[in-house]
Design goal:
There is one protein chain. With 376 residues, this protein is mainly alpha-helical. The chain has 13 helices and eight strands. It has helices spanning 42-54, 59-68, 74-90, 109-119, 136-146, 149-171, 183-207, 240-267, 270-290, 298-306, 312-324, 331-334, 338-375; strands at 12-13, 17-21, 27-31, 36-39, 94-95, 122-132, 212-220, 224-230. α2 (59-68) crosses α3 (74-90), α6 (149-171) packs parallel to α8 and α7 (183-207) packs across α9.
């Protein structure tokens, strides 16, 4: 174990730590200090219940209690327990003596940097803290009147938007003339579209009574500018459909916006039609980009909800890093079967390769722009 290994007793939960039931009754640990969720195995949840019930217990006492309920030997039980407690401590779930914890960390700078990027892939630039549902009263009235028809209405609207886009592209010929493009209009339209995209996540999340933590602008992986809506507490929703609906609210709005722009391009002419047509293509590109599951965006969160996975991306990158550094697996990854490990590793490799490709393209374009500017 490293410098943060559990070396003191009794073991106590930190303030703000809560055991909650997540999707499909999956046990989750909510850590109030970091406002994060950690997926637990059934044995991990049992340990948490022991700690919550006793208030404080020594690791030896917990080992003895677990050994009475398991066929494994006490030595093996204690080894697993200490590994699990170390993981809890790293997540900030355990209260401990700060003086004992002040020892220097033995992880390399690369390990610390990789862990930071995986845990927090966004560098916040601007943010607005909300910490509550958005417009809960009006949305409660909508929920009471619409009920289960909300999904059907949203799906029908998306189909109509797609039909409008197809009709505009196939039957209405508009030539994109650069001389007629009004750049301020396009930029302003995209900014308003982005704000409405994030607002749609917040409204659908609030429709399902999810607390919206904050809105903001950040650099994804510290170089891709993105707007975001923090709806992490959607993990408390029991049904995957609700979480998937929150994730897909943004791409659905992208479709609605593209459909509206398509209709506007058909009903107008001249420069207006050209600008609406260009805006439509940007909105379609935004929809496709947001559905990309290789980045931690809407498409990824929708797939995570559909398959009932939690923290899949973080677990995949953790597994890849452990394999590359020839280190043993933590308790939360030891239960993965061979096929599951292959799936996690395949996703991590492809997602990492895609991210490196984006970085390479960004660096190349920036260097090309700088070279052109220097040659003038």
């Amino acid at each position: 174990m490293n410098g943060r290994a559990i070396t003191w007793d009794p073991v106590c939960l930190a303030p703000g730590v809560e055991l909650v039931a997540g999707p499909n009754d999956t046990p989750l640990l909510y850590v109030g200090e970091s406002r994060s969720y950690v997926r637990l195995s059934e044995s991990g949840a049992e340990i948490m219940r022991l700690l919550a019930g006793s208030g404080a217990a020594t690791s030896a006492e917990i080992s003895q209690l677990l050994a009475r309920r398991s066929a494994a030997g006490e030595a093996e039980i204690r080894r697993r327990l200490m590994s699990f407690l170390e993981q809890l401590d790293r997540a900030g779930a355990l209260a401990h003596d700060k003086e004992k914890d002040a020892r220097p960390q033995r992880r390399s700078w690369l390990a610390r940097a990789a862990r930071k990027v995986v845990r927090e892939p966004r560098l916040r630039l601007l943010s607005w803290r909300l910490d509550r549902p958005l417009a809960p009263g009006p949305l409660a009235l909508v929920r009471a009147r619409v009920g289960n028809s909300a999904v059907r209405i949203a799906t029908l609207s998306a189909l109509l938007a797609i039909a409008a886009v197809v009709c505009a592209v196939v039957f209405v010929k508009v030539t994109i003339d650069p001389a007629r493009v009004m750049l301020p209009l396009i930029i302003g339209g995209l900014v308003l579209h982005t704000v409405a995209h994030e607002l749609s996540h917040a409204l659908v999340g609030s429709y399902y009574e999810v607390k919206i933590r904050e809105f903001g602008v950040a650099l994804l992986y510290y170089f891709i500018p993105v707007a975001y809506t923090d709806r992490t507490d959607a993990y408390r929703l029991p049904e995957f459909r609700s979480r998937a609906a929150i994730a897909l609210a943004g791409p659905m709005f992208d479709l609605y916006g593209a459909g509206a722009s398509a209709v506007a391009s058909c009903l107008t002419g001249g420069a207006a039609a050209v600008n609406f047509r260009l805006l439509m293509f940007f909105q379609i590109a935004a929809c496709v980009s947001n559905l990309n599951p290789l980045l931690p965006g809407d498409g990824y969160h929708a797939l995570e909800a559909w398959f009932g996975a939690l923290n899949f991306r973080r677990r995949a990158f953790s597994l890849l890093f452990r394999r590359l550094t020839l280190r043993g697996l933590p308790p939360n990854l030891q239960g993965l079967r061979a096929r599951q490990q292959f799936g996690h590793l395949a996703y991590a490799v492809v997602a990492l390769g895609y991210t490196l490709l984006l970085v390479s393209v960004f660096i190349y374009n920036m260097s090309h722009i700088i070279a052109l500017a220097g040659g003038r």
